C-alpha cells in the first residue's frame, strides 16, 4: 500500500470506528436484501474497511464488496450512530482507485482518464455525445439497430436502456448563457438553472420543461454559461481530484451573477452540488465559496412548492412515486414532490411499500454490474406492480432510465409509463416541449 | 501443530493455558474432564496433574481432537448437505463479515452455512459432532453479549435467510415462525388480526426471532407483559448431537414432562439450534396514552416509579433518561427538554381508551405528588410521537460524543432503583468515566452506557474496572448481571459473582449432558480460570 492509499484508508477507518455494529442498516440495504450476505451489507463493508486498514485483507479483496455498493445511502437514514457512510465509501473508493491505477495497464488508465476527465468533466463533449445520439435516432440507425439481426450485436444491457432513451437534443441547439424571463411582470426570484450533463444530453426536453415551469411560477431563469458536470460520477468512482476540479468550475460559473437559487432537476446531481461544501471543508481557499454554492442549491420541486405552483388540468392517472435515493438521503427532499403530485386533480396517489429502497440504477451501476442491478430492479418492480399504477414518477435521469427498463422487462409497456416529475407537472399545466420559451440575450 | 485453533489469534483468550503454554480449546477440556473426572474450577492445576497421571490419555485428548482442522473433505461434505455451494461461504471477506456481532471482538469462522431447513441443520450438526467442530448459531448478530461470535472458529450456522414461515392462528392465538423471521414482523402480522406479540427489544426491526429466543430478549413493553420466554409455547430444536426434537406444544397450559422449552429459551445457543417456534399472542390493547415527567432530583424520580407501580396501575412502559442523556439529546436536536433536570420519565399506558384516560389522571397526580417539576400528557398521537422522540434520540445523541458504547443491562429489584442510581453516580466519579444512564426503569433494567474510545487503551482499562463495579453494585442490591442481553463472552467472567460453586456446576452438568463433545456455541456463559473482561484491543 502506498502513502496515498494509506491516508485515504486511514480516514475511512476513523469513520468506521463510529459503527457500533448494531445491524440496524441490514434491512435498509438493497444489496443485502438481494445478495443475502453480510459481506454485501453496510455493516459488513464498514467492517471490511477496518480489516483492510489493519492489513488483514488487501485493497483488491476490499474492492469486491465496495464496488457492489450502490451508494444509495439508505443506511445513513436508519443508523443510530450517525456513521457517515457516504464519506467513508468515497474514501475507500479513492484508496482502491489509487491502488488500481498502480496496477492497471497503461491502456486501462488511459481509458479511465478519457471517461472521467475528458468526457463527463467536459460539457461540450457530453453535448457532442448528445448530438451523436440525435443523429443515431434521427438517421434511422436506431431503427436498423433494433431490427432482429442487429439487435443481437448489442449487449443486453445497452439494448434495454437504449429503448428507454428520450429524444436527444439536436447538436445545433445551445442552451448555455440563455436567459428566460418570468411569466409575470417582475421576477419573484432570479434563479440559475443547472442543466446536468446526462439530463442535457439525453433528457434535453425535460430540462426545457423545467425552465418553463420555473418561468411560470415567476422566476427569471438563467442557464449559467461555462457550467459543467456536477462531479458525482467521478466522486463515487473514487476520482476525488477530478470531482474537485469540476466542482471548482461550477462554483466559478455560478458566481457570475447574484442568484437567489441554483436549481436542478436531477436528484443525484443535486445531492452532489449540495455536498460541495463538505468536499472543500478542509480547503481554506474554497470552503466558503463551496458552502455558499451548496446553500443556494435547490431541487426544482422545492422551488415550485415554495412559490405555490398550481396545476390547471385534471389528469386521470393512477400514480406512484419512486424517489431518487440521493434526493431523499442526501438532499432530504421528501415531501415536496409528493405534495406537488397530489395537488393535481384527478390523480390517484398510490405510495410504494418501500419507496426508500434503491431501484438499482445508481449512476453507472446498472451498466457495470448489470445482473446485480437487474436483481435489485426485480424487487423494485414487484413493489411497483403491486400499486397497479399507470404512471411511475421519478426525479433523476438514472432512475428514469431504470424505471423505463423495468417496465419493458416486465412487459408492462403500454400499460404503465415512467416519467420525470417535471413531465407530469408540465402536463398538468398544459406546457409541452414544443413551446419555445421566450429568451433574452 | 495447533492448526485451526492456533491461526485464530483472537480466540486465544478463549482457550486455556496449561503447562508450557499449551493452548487447549474448551471442547477438549470438557473431554479431559470427562475422562479424568476433573473439576472445572481448578483446571489449571488439574491439567498438569492429568498429564502426569495418564500421559497417553492426555496426548489423545489434546492431539486427537486438535489435529482435526476443517479439511477440504469436510467442506465438501457440508456443500453436499447444503445441496451446492450457493449458501456455503468460505471466502476470506465473507468469513470476516461473520466474525463479529454488536458486542466486542473478532472471531473468524472456518465456514458459514446459510441454512434454510431443519434437515440441513441436523445433518451439519451431526457432521460437526462427529468431527468435533465447533458450531455457532447466528441470526442478524445484533446481540450485545457475544452470543453469535464463533469464538473457537468452526461452523457458523446463519439462520437469517430462513424466514419462510410466519403463520398467525387467530383462533389458537399463536404464531408459528421460522428462525430467521424478523421480530417486529411477527408483531406486525399479529396486529392485522387484532393480536400482539409483546416482546419489543429495541433491535426488533432487525433481530431474528431465533436470536431473541436464544437470548430471552426483553424490551420496554416487558414491564407489563413479561419477556420472550413468557410467550414461547413450543420449539423445534436441533440438539448438539444432531437430533431433531420438539418441546412444548400449542397450548398455554402444558405440564407434561420437564419444561425443556424454558430451558432452551435463554440458553444462548449452547444447548442446540432453534429451528421453529410456536409463540403465544395476546389481544392487542386498543389504545395508548403517554405522559412525561421532569424531575429535579434523580432519587425522587426513582421513588416516583415505585409510587406509580404500587398504585394498582401497571403501565406498559416506564422509560428513564438521566441528566447526561437529556443534555445530549437537547444538544443534538433541541426540543425544549429541561437541561437542568436530573431525570425525565416517560410512561405509556395501554388498554381501553376510557380506562387509560382515567389511569392517566391518577398517574398525573402521583407524579406531581412525588415532586415532579413538570408533568405533560400527550393528547394526540402526534404529541405522543414527539414525546417518545426524545427517548429514541438518546442513542444517536450520545454516539456523537465518543465512538464506542458499552451498553450494560445489570438489573435490580424495583425497590432498589433509587439506590442503584446513586451507586452509578458514584461509579461515574470514582472511575472518571463518561457514564450515561437511560432505559427501562420500570422493571429495574436500567442501561448504564459507558461512552469511550476503544482505541484509547488507558480509557478502556478504566472502563473495564467500572463495568466490574457496576456488576458488583447490582448484585449487592439483590439484582443480576444481565436483564436482557445475556452472558455470552462479555459477562462470563462475572458469573461466580452471582452464583456459588454448585449453582453454576448444575448448569454446567446440563450443558455436558446435552452436548457431550462441547461443540455447540463453545466459550459462552461459563467462566474459565483467570477469565476477565478485556475490552482493550
Could you explain the architecture of this structure?
The complex is a heterodimer of chains A (441) and B (537). Chain A has helices at 3-16, 30-35, 42-53, 59-67, 74-78, 85-103, 106-120, 123-138, 141-145, 148-151, 156-163, 197-202, 204-216, 232-236, 240-253, 267-274, 276-279, 287-296, 300-306, 325-329, 335-342, 365-368, 370-387, 397-409, 421-428; strands spanning 179-180, 189-193, 219-222, 261-264, 297-299, 318-321, 348-349, 391-394, 417-420. In chain A, helix 4 (59-67) crosses helix 6. Among the domains of chain A are: 3-103, Fumarate Reductase Iron-sulfur Protein, Chain B, domain 2, CATH 1.10.1060; 310-428, Rossmann fold, CATH 3.40.50. The model of chain A has no long low-confidence stretch (mean pLDDT 88). With 441 residues, chain A is α/β, with parallel strands linked by helices. Chain B has 537 residues and is of the alpha+beta class. Among the domains of chain B are: 166-283, Uridine Diphospho-n-acetylenolpyruvylglucosamine Reductase, domain 3 (2-Layer Sandwich), CATH 3.30.465; 287-396, 2-Layer Sandwich (Alpha-Beta Plaits); 401-476, Alpha-Beta Plaits (2-Layer Sandwich). Chain B has 20 helices and 20 strands. In chain B, strands 17-14-16-15-19-20-18 form a seven-stranded antiparallel sheet, sandwiched between helices. A five-stranded antiparallel sheet of chain B has the order 7-8-12-10-11. Chain B has a four-stranded mixed sheet with strand order 3-4-6-5, covered by helices on one side. In chain B, a hairpin with a 4-residue loop joins strand 7 (166-169) and strand 8 (174-177). The model of chain B is unreliable at 1-23, 35-42 and 62-68 (pLDDT under 50). At the A-B interface, helix 3 and helix 4 of A face helix 6 and helix 16 of B.
Amino acid at each position: 500500500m502506498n502513502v496515498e492509499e494509506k491516508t485515504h484508508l486511514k480516514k475511512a477507518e476513523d469513520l468506521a470506528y463510529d459503527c457500533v455494529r448494531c445491524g440496524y442498516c441490514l434491512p435498509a440495504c438493497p444489496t443485502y436484501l438481494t445478495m443475502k450476505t453480510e459481506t454485501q451489507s453496510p455493516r459488513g463493508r464498514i467492517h471490511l474497511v477496518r480489516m483492510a486498514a489493519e492489513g488483514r485483507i488487501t485493497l483488491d479483496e476490499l474492492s469486491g464488496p465496495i464496488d457492489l455498493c450502490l451508494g444509495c445511502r439508505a443506511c445513513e437514514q436508519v443508523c443510530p450512530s450517525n456513521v457517515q457512510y457516504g464519506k467513508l465509501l468515497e474514501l475507500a473508493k479513492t484508496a482502491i482507485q489509487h491502488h488500481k491505477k498502480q496496477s492497471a495497464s497503461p491502456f486501462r488508465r488511459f481509458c479511465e482518464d478519457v471517461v472521467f476527465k475528458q468526457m463527463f468533466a467536459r460539457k461540450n463533449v457530453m453535448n457532442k455525445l448528445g448530438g451523436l445520439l440525435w443523429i443515431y435516432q434521427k438517421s434511422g440507425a436506431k431503427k436498423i439497430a433494433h431490427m432482429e439481426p442487429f439487435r443481437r450485436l448489442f449487449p443486453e444491457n445497452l439494448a434495454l436502456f437504449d429503448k428507454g432513451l428520450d429524444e436527444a437534443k439536436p447538436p445545433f441547439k445551445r442552451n448555455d448563457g440563455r436567459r428566460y424571463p418570468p411569466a409575470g411582470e417582475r421576477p419573484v426570484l432570479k434563479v440559475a438553472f443547472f442543466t446536468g450533463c446526462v439530463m442535457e444530453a439525453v433528457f434535453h426536453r425535460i430540462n426545457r420543461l423545467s425552465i418553463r415551469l420555473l418561468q411560470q411560477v415567476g422566476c427569471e431563469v438563467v442557464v449559467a454559461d461555462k457550467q459543467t458536470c456536477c462531479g458525482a460520477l467521478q466522486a463515487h468512482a473514487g476520482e476525488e481530484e477530478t470531482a474537485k476540479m469540476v466542482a471548482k468550475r461550477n462554483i466559478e460559473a455560478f458566481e457570475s451573477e447574484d442568484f437567489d437559487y441554483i436549481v436542478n432537476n436531477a436528484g443525484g446531481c443535486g445531492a452532489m452540488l449540495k455536498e460541495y461544501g463538505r468536499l472543500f471543508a478542509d480547503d481554506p481557499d474554497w470552503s466558503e465559496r463551496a458552502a455558499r454554492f451548496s446553500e443556494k442549491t435547490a431541487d426544482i420541486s422545492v422551488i415550485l412548492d415554495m412559490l405555490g405552483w398550481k396545476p390547471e388540468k385534471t389528469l386521470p392517472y393512477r400514480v406512484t412515486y419512486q424517489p431518487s435515493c440521493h434526493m431523499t438521503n442526501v438532499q432530504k427532499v421528501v415531501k415536496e414532490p409528493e405534495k406537488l403530485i397530489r395537488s393535481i386533480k384527478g390523480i390517484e396517489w398510490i405510495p410504494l411499500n418501500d419507496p426508500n429502497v434503491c431501484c438499482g440504477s445508481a449512476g453507472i451501476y446498472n451498466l457495470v454490474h448489470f445482473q446485480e442491478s437487474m436483481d435489485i430492479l426485480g424487487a423494485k418492480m414487484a413493489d411497483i406492480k403491486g400499486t397497479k399504477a399507470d404512471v411511475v414518477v421519478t426525479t433523476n435521469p438514472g432512475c428514469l432510465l431504470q424505471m423505463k427498463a423495468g417496465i419493458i422487462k416486465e412487459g408492462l409497456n403500454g400499460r404503465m409509463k415512467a416519467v420525470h416529475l417535471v413531465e407530469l407537472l408540465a402536463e398538468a399545466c398544459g406546457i409541452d416541449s414544443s413551446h419555445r420559451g421566450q429568451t433574452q440575450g | 501443530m495447533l492448526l485451526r485453533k492456533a491461526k485464530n489469534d483472537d480466540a486465544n483468550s478463549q482457550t486455556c493455558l496449561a503447562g508450557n503454554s499449551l493452548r487447549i480449546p474448551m471442547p477438549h477440556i470438557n473431554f479431559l474432564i470427562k475422562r479424568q473426572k476433573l473439576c472445572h474450577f481448578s483446571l489449571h492445576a488439574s491439567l498438569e496433574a492429568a498429564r502426569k497421571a495418564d500421559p497417553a490419555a492426555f496426548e489423545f485428548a489434546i492431539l486427537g481432537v486438535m489435529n482435526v482442522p476443517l479439511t477440504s473433505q469436510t467442506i465438501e461434505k457440508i456443500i453436499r448437505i447444503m445441496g451446492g455451494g450457493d449458501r456455503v461461504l468460505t471466502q476470506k471477506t465473507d468469513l470476516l463479515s461473520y466474525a463479529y456481532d454488536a458486542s466486542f471482538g473478532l472471531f473468524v469462522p472456518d465456514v458459514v452455512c446459510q441454512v434454510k431447513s431443519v434437515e440441513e441443520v441436523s445433518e451439519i450438526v451431526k457432521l460437526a459432532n462427529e468431527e468435533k467442530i465447533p458450531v455457532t448459531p447466528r441470526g442478524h448478530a445484533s446481540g450485545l453479549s457475544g452470543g453469535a461470535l464463533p469464538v473457537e472458529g468452526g461452523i457458523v450456522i446463519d439462520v437469517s435467510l430462513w424466514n419462510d414461515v410466519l403463520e398467525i392462528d387467530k383462533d389458537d392465538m399463536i404464531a408459528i415462525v421460522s428462525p430467521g423471521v424478523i421480530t417486529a414482523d411477527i408483531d406486525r402480522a399479529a396486529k392485522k388480526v387484532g393480536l400482539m406479540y409483546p416482546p419489543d427489544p429495541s433491535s426488533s426491526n432487525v433481530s431474528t426471532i431465533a436470536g431473541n429466543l436464544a437470548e430471552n430478549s426483553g424490551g420496554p413493553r416487558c414491564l407489563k407483559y413479561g419477556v420472550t420466554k413468557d410467550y414461547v409455547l413450543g420449539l423445534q430444536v436441533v440438539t448438539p448431537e444432531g437430533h431433531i426434537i420438539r418441546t412444548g406444544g400449542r397450548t398455554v397450559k402444558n405440564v407434561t414432562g420437564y419444561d425443556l422449552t424454558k430451558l432452551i429459551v435463554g440458553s444462548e445457543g449452547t444447548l442446540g439450534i432453534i429451528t421453529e417456534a410456536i409463540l403465544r399472542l395476546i389481544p392487542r390493547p386498543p389504545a395508548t396514552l403517554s405522559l412525561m415527567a421532569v424531575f429535579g432530583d434523580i432519587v425522587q424520580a426513582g421513588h416516583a416509579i415505585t409510587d406509580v407501580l404500587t398504585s394498582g396501575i401497571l403501565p406498559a412502559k416506564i422509560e428513564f433518561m438521566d441528566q447526561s442523556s437529556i443534555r445530549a439529546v437537547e444538544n443534538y436536536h433541541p426540543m425544549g427538554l429541561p437541561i437542568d433536570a436530573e431525570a425525565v420519565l416517560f410512561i405509556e399506558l395501554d388498554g381501553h381508551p376510557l380506562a387509560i384516560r382515567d389511569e392517566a389522571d391518577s398517574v398525573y397526580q402521583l407524579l406531581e405528588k412525588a415532586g415532579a417539576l413538570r408533568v405533560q400528557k400527550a393528547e394526540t398521537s402526534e404529541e405522543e410521537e414527539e414525546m417518545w422522540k426524545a427517548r429514541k434520540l438518546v442513542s444517536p445523541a450520545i454516539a456523537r460524543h465518543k465512538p464506542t458504547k458499552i451498553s450494560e443491562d445489570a438489573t435490580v429489584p424495583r425497590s432498589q432503583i433509587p439506590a442503584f442510581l446513586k451507586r452509578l453516580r458514584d461509579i461515574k466519579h470514582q472511575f472518571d468515566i463518561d457514564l450515561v444512564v437511560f432505559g427501562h426503569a420500570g422493571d429495574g433494567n436500567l442501561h448504564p452506557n459507558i461512552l469511550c474510545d476503544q482505541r484509547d487503551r488507558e480509557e478502556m482499562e478504566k472502563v473495564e474496572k467500572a463495568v466490574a463495579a457496576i456488576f458488583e453494585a447490582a448484585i449487592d442490591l439483590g439484582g443480576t448481571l444481565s436483564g436482557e442481553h445475556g452472558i455470552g463472552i462479555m459477562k462470563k467472567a462475572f458469573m461466580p459473582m452471582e452464583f456459588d460453586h454448585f449453582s453454576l456446576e448444575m448448569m454446567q452438568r446440563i450443558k455436558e449432558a446435552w452436548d457431550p463433545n462441547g461443540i455447540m456455541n463453545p466459550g459462552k456463559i461459563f467462566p474459565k480460570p483467570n477469565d476477565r473482561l478485556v475490552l482493550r484491543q
